[in-house]
Design goal:
Number of strands: 2
Shape: elongated
Strand content: 5-15%
Distance between the termini: 43 Å
Oligomer: single chain
Strand order of the largest sheet: 1-2
Structural class: mainly alpha
Radius of gyration: 21 Å
Helix content: 40-55%
Number of helices: 8
Order of helices and strands: HHHHEHEHHH
Largest sheet: 2 strands, parallel
Length: 188
């Protein structure tokens, strides 16, 4: 969800880095949750923007206010930030729509210190007229370079890695999982 995404970024980068966002969130919750000893949780953000007693227009207004506060704080970072979204195809439709409209548009127009990496079986349409010209598209292919795998997995000898690489046709996730299984088995 959008709330979970915002929460993850805030928690990963540090709640203290998002004073405007936290203040805005507190005004919506109006004292019903004590944040003094807790991280912001996705369900608490969800309470703030999806309360049942709030009409849809007010919810949309609150969400825009949270976005603005979030983006304001993110813009203040002095160093470059890389945010990675993996398995994009598993995101909810509402999150995908938000990423492809609000999030990527804001990153392109406002957040010059933020780089986004989106990976998955589906990805946002790179032909988007607002942010598409800023994208680089890389198709992930099998990694069949034995030397690269041997460097990656120095815990195993070459003769143990090669049959795994050949048998799994260089599929990165499968090869990685199998190499871990062999290492954890204690056979080498």
């Amino acid at each position: 969800s959008i709330a979970a995404f915002l929460s993850e970024v805030v928690n990963d980068l540090g709640r203290e880095q998002f004073p405007t966002f936290v203040k805005q969130l507190r005004t919506f919750i109006q004292g019903s949750v004590d944040f003094s000893e807790n991280d912001i949780a996705a369900d608490k953000i969800s309470i703030a923007i999806n309360g049942t007693s709030i009409d849809p227009q007010a919810q949309e207004h609150r969400l825009r206010q949270l976005h603005d506060a979030f983006f304001h704080d993110l813009e203040k970072f002095e160093h470059q930030i890389v945010i990675t979204l993996d398995t994009y195809q598993m995101a909810s439709k509402s999150l995908q729509d938000w990423i492809e409209s609000t999030w990527l548009r804001t990153v392109e127009r406002r957040l010059k210190n933020v780089v986004i990496v989106i990976a998955g079986q589906i990805i946002p349409n790179i032909n988007n007229s607002v942010w598409g010209h800023e994208c680089e598209h890389f198709k992930l292919t099998p990694i069949d370079d034995l030397k690269a795998w041997c460097e990656f997995c120095s815990d195993l000898p070459d003769h143990a890695i090669k049959p795994i690489l050949i048998g799994l046709k260089g599929h990165p996730k499968s090869v990685h999982e199998m190499l871990l299984a062999v290492i954890n088995s204690g056979q080498y």
